[in-house]
Amino acid sequence: MSRLLLSLLVCSGLTACSHESAPVTTPTATAPVAPMISTTSGAAATTAADPQTAQQIFVQRILPIFQSKNPSSCTECHLSGVHLQDYILPSQEATFANLVAAGLIDAKRPDESKILKFIQRTPPGSPLINQKVREQEYAAFREWIIAAVAQPDLLNVAADGQPIGPQAPIESIRHARRDQVLASFVDNIWHEVGRCAACHSPDRNQKQVAEHGEQVSWIVLNDPQATLDRMLNADLINATEPEKSLLLQKPTLQVEHGGGQKAVAGDRTYKQFRRFIDDYAQMAHGGYATAAEIPQPSDEVSYITEIWLKLTGVPAKYDKQLLQVDLYRATDSGWSTERVATSDRLIFGPQNLWQHSLSLIAPRDSAAAKEIASLKLPPGKYLAKIYVDQTGKLQQDYSAELDASDLVGEVEVTSKWPAGYGKMTTIAFPSSPQE
Ligand code: HEC
Ligand code: HEC
After folding, report:
1. Where does the Cytochrome c domain lie (predicted)?
2. How far does residue 199's CA lie from ligand 2's centre (Å)?
3. What is the pLDDT of residue 31?
4. I need a labelling partner for 15 at 20 to 30 A (CA). Which of 26, 250, 408, 412 fits?
């Protein structure tokens, strides 16, 4: 019989019993009285009659967690890389000794054990069903640890160095945390879905819903997490074959789309969507084995706006090619070194026309990155650099960028940059090619 249970039994049988009265020399002295035992003397008597050894608790309550195919409570905050199962080995001795050696069990103060702290973590608004799982895990580990630290035979087992706990690199664990995943979603998709809102946001799409049904409302108003969940549930994001995600295939017309062509492979929207979806898929399938594989966030942040720009007199030969405009702002020392706005879309050759709304751009973590959240472009003089993908290189490699070799012209433009489709800033396509 464990010394802990013995001392608890003694305690629970007395009315005036405190932790101080327990033998202070044993590691178990500070262990709080387990509620199950301390509540009534009747319950204590039954338990005491047949106290469970740590081994029995391990077999009955810990091993089932180890063998379970169900996700542990950890996955509520960790998309991948962390599972409670990682902290369990098939044998009790090895599990205990290696958890102690890894600093995850505190043999002197079992309730302070790091593994218990991990299990206790609860996200706000955690659904009842997850809380139940968490409570069960917590009760199982706590009971087992309290029983185990009271057994000298277990305390004397030396760790055999078997790996225990998550084996993914710490950078990978951090990257796959759901708060980080959400931040990346906001950065890459949420900031971009304004392009789709007219038909996919419930405050604006009554007509589409009437015609096509509720599933067309895949944007959840003001709630990026709920929008991500919905995209996953509705299979708009395909975590097994990311490039087959409907979120990519519909707007690029790779599959029929009620909204027509809204993007092309390789344009900015497509790149941002892919950036998130590819990364999500990798994490959902086990994550990154080394820190070096983790994709870096783009070094720019962007916001789409309702500021429209129109190019007239675009040569018809460019029909259906992707045209990208980058705007540089006039400063006291010449044009800004960084582009401040960009926009890309296919050219409509028959009407010699290109038009699209602008995305404001700033280097990540810069002061400008905060300013552009206002969705305003300061009035004044700008340089528009115009690129056309004449070789179709973005079609071949969506991750390619247009560069100096694709530049077809530069033109100065002065505007107040009003927002609204009806208030477009119009510039003439520069007639002579770049000097
Ligand atoms: C409420 C959300 C939440 C839950 C649930 C959660 N974690 Fe975490 N976890 C975090 C956060 C946030 C961090 C990073 C910063 C920190 O440690 O506080 C983290 C970091 C970690 C780390 C990184 C290393 C370290 O020492 O900080 C490990 C390992 C870890 N958690 C394991 C677990 C395990 C195992 C579970 C389930 C038993 C779990 N977590 C459940 C939020 C959570
Ligand atoms: C002019 C309106 C319009 C715009 C703008 C629009 N769509 Fe759509 N979209 C539709 C309609 C209508 C449907 C329903 C018919 C269909 O499935 O093609 C639809 C369906 C979809 C679906 C399938 C939804 C489901 O669950 O079946 C996806 C994914 C989608 N659109 C993505 C996009 C993306 C991404 C954008 C923005 C880049 C966008 N759409 C912009 C009209 C639009």
Report:
1. 49-149
2. 7
3. 39
4. 26
